[in-house]
Amino acid sequence: MIHTKEDLKRYLYADREAQPPHPNIILRHFDPIYRIKTLIRLCEYHFNLSSNSFYHKVAYYCRKLQLKRLEDRFCSEFAINVFDEGLVIWHPQRIIINPNAKVGKHCSISSGVVIAQAHNMCPTIGDNVELMIDCAVLGNIHIANNVRIGAKTLVIKNINAVNTTWAGIPAKKISDKGTIETPIPRPTAHL
């Protein structure tokens, strides 16, 4: 979680390294993915410090309003204090994240991903996990590190096998190759 200015800088740097923004600083601010990730991190920073400071309360509500506009534009719901550093968002449309879920470092999510509660329990997702288009992770489950979840997959049970690929409804293991043998591709900066 982001509690200091140094934490904020570290998280923003890790997110930019995982998914480089446009090299032109002016065009960078028109990139919705860059704006969403930056606003998520700024909201986390100001929210975590808002109990002691009026400035951080006001700054949090201003940043949250900006984030809400982008969420409405892309029909998504991004929660704060969920993602660890190195977040990659491929397409920001229709992403729903429960605020009580926990996601590890270097997570990659695509359009239509749902990380949600079932019976008031939320999932915990490990490091280096790739969630592909339209997959859903529901309930009190744990997903191990270096796991790839295929498109249109429904995960309702724990995935304890490290470095595997899962697909189907409900999810079944289809490969022993996860994100170690075939790492999450790093997006290149716009040229």
UniProtKB/TrEMBL annotation:
Keyword Transferase tagged: yes
Domain of life per record: Bacteria
EC class (word): transferase
GO molecular function, one term: serine O-acetyltransferase activity
EC number: 2.3.1.30
Keyword annotations of the record: Acyltransferase, Transferase
Name of the protein: Serine acetyltransferase
Gene name, Swiss-Prot/TrEMBL: cysE
